[in-house]
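TA notes, week 10

Several of you asked for a full example with nothing omitted. So below is the full record: structure tokens for the whole chain, then the designed sequence directly under it. When grading your own attempts, check the secondary structure regions first.
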């Protein structure tokens, strides 16, 4: 087999893996639609579909929740993959430049101010998340130490610390029996408030962000190289990096403004995507998106069915993500020894 045939065979294998992941995600989504605690813990059988309450639960509660899990998982994973490639750092996730901390502060601030509107909480979280990105970028222009990416990393650390401190102050003055509990639950993440209206409120923008990132996926390999190398092949590294960072941040902030803080999805799924599809982002990027959707779907289903009370999804993604991360690092260590 010559090099061209070997390359074509590898491409076919990657397409088959992508198709298999899509099929698994569709089948599990359909299966999990019937998993819950009504009319009793377990699965809803066809004999129960005559009950109007069962149909309402399936179509108005579980279905939008599953779709939100798929959408949020894809967006967080796509953002994490983009950040990791742009910074050439496998330990980066969407909150790397203070985005998550800024969004958390914005949501907590609106909760403490006493608003009853979830839309205002969503808008505030989005605005402050974008503000954190802008602050990191402007602050990086003032630094005189290291290269452009290193300055952005350092400014992100500083901005994250500032917003984390501000969030601590907001939690300190929050009313303990209500506002503080709302802030705590938001920061643990959850899809219990999922509805068709919430999905529609972010669908167009998040879908546009995913399309833009998907169309730029082939450039991510080049942008992960040194800036001179990227420029030599006809790219504008500074413009493209800023564009992708802004798009990834907008999608992330809109997502977590509804779901709350959900960690590890944007960190662990790009690792799994590259492990299954290799370093070529043409395949590993969509593979990571599907894995992100699948990971969040499984975590949410476990969280709402395992115990009588719901487990916040952020706790499950952190727990399972950390275990997967340990396994990946252990396997890489063993491969290195071999």
């Amino acid at each position: 087999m010559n090099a061209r045939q070997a390359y074509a065979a590898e491409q076919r294998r990657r397409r088959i893996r992508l198709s298999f992941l899509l099929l698994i995600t569709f089948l599990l989504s359909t299966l999990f639609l019937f998993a819950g605690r009504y009319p009793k813990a377990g699965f809803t059988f066809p004999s129960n579909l005559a009950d109007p309450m069962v149909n309402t639960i399936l179509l108005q509660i579980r279905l939008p929740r599953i779709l939100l899990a798929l959408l949020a998982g894809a967006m967080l994973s796509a953002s994490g993959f983009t950040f990791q490639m742009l910074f050439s750092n496998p330990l980066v996730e969407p909150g790397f430049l203070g985005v998550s901390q800024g969004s958390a502060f914005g949501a907590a601030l609106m909760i403490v101010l006493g608003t009853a509107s979830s839309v205002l909480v969503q808008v505030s979280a989005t605005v402050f998340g974008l503000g954190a990105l802008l602050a990191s970028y402007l602050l990086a222009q003032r630094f005189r130490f290291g290269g452009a990416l290193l300055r952005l990393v350092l400014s992100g650390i500083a901005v994250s610390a500032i917003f984390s401190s501000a969030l601590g102050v907001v939690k300190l003055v929050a009313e303990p029996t209500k506002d503080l509990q709302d802030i705590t639950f938001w920061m643990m993440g959850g899809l219990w408030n999922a509805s068709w209206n919430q999905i529609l409120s972010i669908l167009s923008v998040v879908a546009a962000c995913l399309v833009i990132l998907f169309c730029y996926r082939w450039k991510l390999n080049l942008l992960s190289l040194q800036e001179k190398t990227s420029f030599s092949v006809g790219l504008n590294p500074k413009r493209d990096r800023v564009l992708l960072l802004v798009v990834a941040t907008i999608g992330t902030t809109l997502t977590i403004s509804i779901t709350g803080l959900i960690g590890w999805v944007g960190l662990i799924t790009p690792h799994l995507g590259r492990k299954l599809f290799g370093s070529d982002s043409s395949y590993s990027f969509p593979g990571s998106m599907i894995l992100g959707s699948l990971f969040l779907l499984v975590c949410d289903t476990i969280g709402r069915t395992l115990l009588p009370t719901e487990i916040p999804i952020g706790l499950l993604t952190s727990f399972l993500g950390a275990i997967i991360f340990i396994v990946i690092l252990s396997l890489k260590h063993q491969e290195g020894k071999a």
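DSSP finds 13 helices and two strands in the chain. Use that as a sanity check on your answer.
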